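Supplementary notes (optional reading)

For those who missed the lab, this is the record we used. Protein: CTP synthase. Length: 598 residues.
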Amino acid sequence: MKYVLVSGGVISGVGKRVIASSTGLLLKTIGLKVSSIKVDPYLNVDAGTMNPKEHGEVFVLSDGGEVDLDLGNYERYLNITLTRENNITTGKIYQHVIERERKGDYLGKTVQVVPHITDAIQDWIEKVARIPVDDTGEEPDVCIIELGGTVGDIESMPFVEAMTQLRRRAGRNNFLQIHVSYVPVINGEQKTKPTQHAIQAARSAGLMPDLIACRCERPLEPSAVNKIAHFCFVDVSQVLVVKDMPSIYQVPMLLEQQGLIPLLSDILALKDVTISSKLLEKGRHTWAQWKSLTDTKGRRIDTVSIVLVGKYIELHDSYLSVIKALEHSAMRCARELVIEWVDSEHLESKTRDTDPAKFHKAWHNVCTASGILVPGGFGTRGTEGKIAAAKWARENKTPYLGICLGMQIAVIEYARHVCGLTNATSEEFNAQAAEKIIKFMPEVDKKTMGATMRLGLRPTLFQPGSEWSRLRALYAGKTEILERHRHRYEVNPAHIETLEKGGMSFVGKDDKGERMEVIEIKDHPWFVGVQFHPEYLSRVLDPSRPYLGFVAASAGMLDQITKEYMDGHGPPGAAEGVLNGAANGVGHLSMNGSSGLF
């Protein structure tokens, strides 16, 4: 097993996840099997209870693991399926070691950070790195390890020590470290001193960076590159310049152009790895598609404007997978994506009374958008604004997509304004309400928050008579689909008949026919709600179908896209498909951008 460690210095948030994912993608293009592990040095056992406004979204894996959002990036870039064990936290490691100590596994020894915690980290990595993650069912050749935070953080030190030991344990030509640093520009001059100090700190902690990835707003001047190479004891070729790019999906090409593949091959002795001709051909095909899809030179493309009505919009990473799914779909439709962020509270009457400017601006964005998206969320705050947005979309024939809570919002709105249930609400909003259209799922633990929701990959069956469904057509007429879930509430079965008589179609249900999974309104260009989170399975070369349909409808090209998928010309599994499209400018690789996508 070979390992690539991606660490960071100077500041956090400089793009380790994209550099790690891009490195993995380049390794796959030469036929290697690649896995990924994310190390998060916080005490939480998992990310499930974290506030999205503080930490970003909680990404859900097929096995139901609630993990750091970076694992979503790995899956999207590498087209792999990870497990909850691919996200290592301090909480998990200490819990594991303490449980072993309680069982007497340490035979009365004094349990310490070194060697017991550091050994547990290494053992965990070595075990998980060998788990198959793709359709080959074979052990990966390379594991990309991203170390969260920055070297020097006190909470990271056990992991740093473990990585220094893992390099020795792995042996020569089996371990490579990429250290990501930031090169600021002050008064027009590129400053290399922060990077020099970051490398010095890494070396003093025992880490020995083989490559230095310099994040910068503009290409580094030769003098700056030479200075970094000189003072950080590496060759000039080992300094990678990762400048701001129009799209983060162009970062792999940027790294390829600087010779990353030969560098990896040389340091890791990849010539000694047996590579199957089938995987090599697949890797080349994927790389050709990736470059074709993301190269925007000389192309003029129209825009599609999507309003995202949310309650955590201060931190865009709260909706990272949603943004990515929209980007993938916009690229597939050859459209430039423009996202208008609307705080759902600003659509409510209380805002009209207290801050009319915010109220009218929010409604202007909603009323002029090509499509309206209401994503998932929790709690009562801002829900009346979401209901108002859903009502506008339904009445004005504006394409609408509701995800999880967004689907429940659409059901409540329909019950109130079409079915005459004027007091319709959710048990989440009012537990004592008489007309609970949405109710708490009986099997879910109400007392414990962590890992108690309905989680992971579960089947949805399209119902008889739903052949007209626009969404079903994008799944090429399949009767059963598998999507990932994360929710505690469901549509109340007691009100299904009333809603159906009013014209709402529950075109998808769970495998028992008891839980409503997909809603759709027939007499509408695109009004779809899904209880699952399709964004978790969206891939760069294989967009999520609910998002693709939504974006295509918003761009006025749903019939064209649907025909391509029905005729078998949509990508059936990422690498094998006919893709026609151009990249968009969203996901700008910039230190100054507010998107937080890199």
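If you only remember one thing from this example: The chain has a mean pLDDT of 91.
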